[in-house]
Amino acid sequence: MTNNAFPEGFLWGGAVAANQVEGGWNVDGKGMSVADIASYKPNIDNTNYAAHWEVSTESIEAAIADQTDKDYPKRRGIDFYHRYKEDLALFAEMGFKTLRLSIAWTRLFPTGEELEPNEAGVAFYENVFKEMERLNIEPIVTLSHYEMPVSLSLKFNGWVDRRVVDDFVRFSNVCFDRFGKYVKYWLTFNEIDSIHRHPFTTAGIIPDKSAEGRYIADVYQALHHQFVASALVTKDAHEKIPGSQVGCMLTKLMTYPLTCAPLDVELTLKKNLENDFYADVQVFGEYPRMIIKDLEKRNLMPEMVEGDKEILKEHTVDFVSFSYYMSMAESADPNAERTPGNTVLGVKNPYLPSTEWGWQIDPKGLKISLIELYDRYNVPLMIVENGMGAVDKIEDGKIHDDYRMEYFTAHFKQMKEAIDEGVDLVGYTSWAPIDLVSAGTSQVSKRYGFIYVDADDEGNGTYDRMRKDSFYWYQKVIQTNGASLAE
Ligand code: BG6
Which of 22, 147, 191, 330 is catalytic? Predict the structure, then answer.
């Protein structure tokens, strides 16, 4: 190992989610998930994310009635369902030590309420994990990544109803029983904090089902149920899979004060504390005092049944994983210029460049996040999403994506600095190693991959895969365990 290399055994790889890659939305007994409801809307307004996810009982029923994939890119994905062997081979060629992927709940339990799993769905993931084992790629599996059964959403208003906890625990236990021999690393809920930003996608919540004035309270109730479910399945994974490691997963939304005016600093502090809330519960096993006070004041404190507090306290996570794409600023000035980020609209930081989608590129913010999270939680960290969406152009049959390599290089250097300063960062999975369907906009043209997929936003194309320049670049980073970054 040279000084420039990352720690031995560092888990380099990539991350995807079932609903954004698999396709095969209606085959082999799969049920419909909340992701199958998201339609593609051209002329996307990046400053109004809420509009992409606006749903009502009526709009969901209309989407279900449309049994085609024409307007629903997540139903198509990138056809990983049929091409997983080819894709895993490409990841192996890049030298991946790990791949983060999720299990579509509806492949195993089409409506979420069946008592026994759909064996065709189980077989698909068994085959994927066997192939990964053969290729020496360690799986990191997310149990819930924006793909709950839409049936649970319509019937129970998703996670607002406590009964969904049991359905999720049953699903998770099938995953542990059937895939535990292949999978050591588990994440419970992807970006659990996103429930406030897109409650339907994250927790199946349909606004028109809430009683007058109780919508926000319902969101906190659903979040509480997810916290409890996360703790319960952490317990089950630990009991069933020797040596298993379970992590929480957060959207790290680093916020800076726009100026050093004390009010800007106070507002920023509050934003950052709110962002910490979710890992606080999952790592420390209890709601933070300031959050309790705030929820009580606003009459939003969720109902907790007997035993909940003990469950949260006893079954905390082993590590913290998070996504990091961008940072933003905060200001007391209501007229401060704003820019979109990962499902947020933040105050624009004048010191940072942005991607074509307006997300502010901030490698130093990643280092600051790593230091802050490690200092606060004192458990190993994993970066399980990081990357930039960009428009890629094919020139002479190739894709020269220097911008992507620059983005990653700058972030990797900051990771190395953080490690050298003492942060226990054990793994990194880029989002995403292959072009896929965007969670936020349902575009394929917002490309993230080292591997190009020949598909457009309307589903035209051969879906053939092609290596971009960054493919070879990442291959070298992994081969040298990061030492090539210093060249
Ligand atoms: C993360 C999600 O928030 O951001 C991913 O976990 C998502 O599912 C990623 O794809 C990038 O966001 P987008 O909207 O560009 O796909």
Answer: 191
Please pick, among 266, 385, 406, 487, the residue that the annotation labels catalytic: 385
Active site includes 191? yes
What's the 442 CA to ligand 1 centre distance in angstroms?
A: 10
CATH assignment of the domain containing 191? 3.20.20.80
The strand pair at 327-330 and 319-323 is best described as: unpaired
In a domain, 453, yes or no: yes
Range of the domain at 268: 11-486
- pLDDT per residue over 441-485, tens digit each? 999 999 999 999 999 999 999 999 999 999 999 999 999 999 999
Residue 235 domain flag: yes
441 Cα nearest atom in ligand 1: 14
Cα separations (Å) of 323 from 31, 101, 413? Answer: 28, 14, 17
| Contact yes or no for 268/256 (Cβ under 8 A) | yes
Return the residue whose CA atom lies nearest to atom 8 of ligand 1: 439
Ligand 1 center to 438 CA (angstroms):
6
From residue 175, alpha-carbon distances to 126, 240, 358, 366 in Å are 10, 11, 38, 32
93 is catalytic: no
pTM score, two decimals?
Answer: 0.97
Please write the tens of the pLDDT for every residue from 156-200.
999 999 999 999 999 999 999 999 999 999 999 999 999 999 999
Question: Could you give the number of structural domains in the chain?
Answer: 1
